[in-house]
Amino acid sequence: MNTIYYRVTDPAADREKIEHAGQILRDGGLVAIPTETVYGLAANALNPEAVKAIFTAKGRPQDNPLIVHISDYSQVEALVEKVDERLPALAKEFWPGPLTVIMKKSPLVPNVTSGGLDTVAIRMPSDPVAAAIIKAAGVPLAAPSANSSGKPSPTRAEHVTADMDGKIEMIVDGGQCDIGVESTVITLVTEPPTLLRPGGVIPEELERILGEIEISPAVFASLKEGETAASPGMKYKHYSPAAKVVLIKGNLKRTAAYVRARDDGSTCVLCFEGEEDAFTCPSIVYGRKDDGLSQANGAFDALRKVDESGFKTAFVRCPDPTGVGLAVYNRLLRSAAFNVVELDTAPCVIGFTGQTGAGKSTVSQWLGKRGFIIVDGDILAREAVKQTDVLAALAECFGDEVILPDGSLNRKKTAEIAFSSPENTAALNAITHPAITRLALEAISSAKSSGAKGVVIEAAALIGSPIMSLCDLIASVTAPAEEREKRIIARDNLTVEEARRRMSAQYDDEYYARHSDIIIKNGSGDDFTVYAEELIKAVDALNEGV
Ligand code: TXA
Ligand code: MG
Fold first, then answer.
1. pTM surpassing 0.90?
2. Ligand 1 site: residues with CB under 6 angstroms?
3. Ligand 1 atom index nearest CA of 41
4. What is the helix (H) or strand (E) element at residue 351, kind and residue range?
5. Position 233 pLDDT exceeds 80
6. Please, are residues 200 and 327 in contact by the beta-carbon 8 Å criterion?
7. Chain segment 64-88, per-residue pLDDT in tens
């Protein structure tokens, strides 16, 4: 199909284009129209065949009902069983505008329009181009958002073109939508009325007219990271780019540390104006921090940009869910498929490493006395290879000889085989790393309830390991080589040759400096507590966000 594209800025000046759109709609065609919320994909709401074409063009499930758009209050009566007595007051206050009201439907409304329900959703857009097209069509228009089902809603004509070009008769470009998120949906069928979808009209405004209203639990419903959807409605991912979206609740500093640790080079962040520099990965600004309307304006566009720029993961700063921000929060929650990370209540995680003999344990014991939980990475690694699935995978990969008669791992044999070639080492890591990460996450989440200042994960081979991606901060302990040599000779009863051999496999100070946020110097001439206090200050700053 050849899609006609019109740009209309002033409906009075562009009368012919408006009439043309009205004609197509009367004839059962589809026209994408601008509204003050998002672009709508319109068809004659009373023509079942035309409405079916909407579902086809969008790839939308047929059981999802559509909103019926009117241009004049007098159109309501024919669409409903009975005009609710509260409608006039609502209409006076909010129509035309971003409010959709659900009432019992009349037989005039086809089942395909109402998704098989006995109710109808009605809204009167305030956008002058939308109003003019509805009027020109002479019939109420069913219009869902003009995006492919599941994708972010379109707030500019180019978004519509990206999803609908060639699939519909006409696209009318009226510029950027004023609000940027879909209308508020309230049903008057329940008592008290229930807010089904937050939007430009906020709950407090509705309560002023209606008295008490209920907010559907689905508005806030969220799952913790890792949990699976319990209710069927949550299986639907909405407003989503192809990239993975993760909503982050937490202060800017913690969020930046969290994102940095997980940046794999195809990661971006959706943040507020002025925050760009806090992030090491590319950022897409979607609004101002304390301005829900500006966030509504930018959110869907920002989500689309994630895919356009080829990012695979987008971490999103969580908006304050009040005022119009509630609608933004509700949409972002769904675009993230309820994948929310709560940093405010999570302990700060410090990855702790350093050269052999530098004194990691001395420093971490000191940190333990200062309110940190210490997790020994070596113990995690040893625990990981006790797990039956890990043992089975190792036997499968390296042969039964790596399993001792008592069923436990022959660590010596495993090390011999695994470190005999880079391929074998990679195979060992691929098997053990996920288990180690799982154990580390368990240790972190159990520390959460203990009220600890933070969790210190001590691991010699931390840098480049998967545990590093769980850490908000990396700290390394270093000491002069001669001193480390003396220490390990005394500690492990080594000869000088043995000590030197072990130390030759170690990285130098520069390596640790490059990969750490904080260096804790622990030579005999140093007072390590001075540096460790710096670490504590950095943790406090992350927790407080300053
Ligand atoms: O701002 C808007 O409302 C935009 C513009 C184009 O007007 N339209 C829009 O339509 O967002 P759509 O189809 O994407 O969303 C309609 C929402 C859906 O969540 C649908 O389930 C709900 O309204 N809805 C429609 N009729 C309903 C009914 N009878 N009962 C319950 N929910 C209904
Ligand atoms: Mg939609």
1. no
2. 35, 37-38, 40, 64-67, 100, 102, 114, 117, 119-121, 123, 143-145, 182-183, 185, 196-197
3. 6
4. strand 348-354
5. no
6. yes
7. 899 999 999 999 999 999 999 999 9
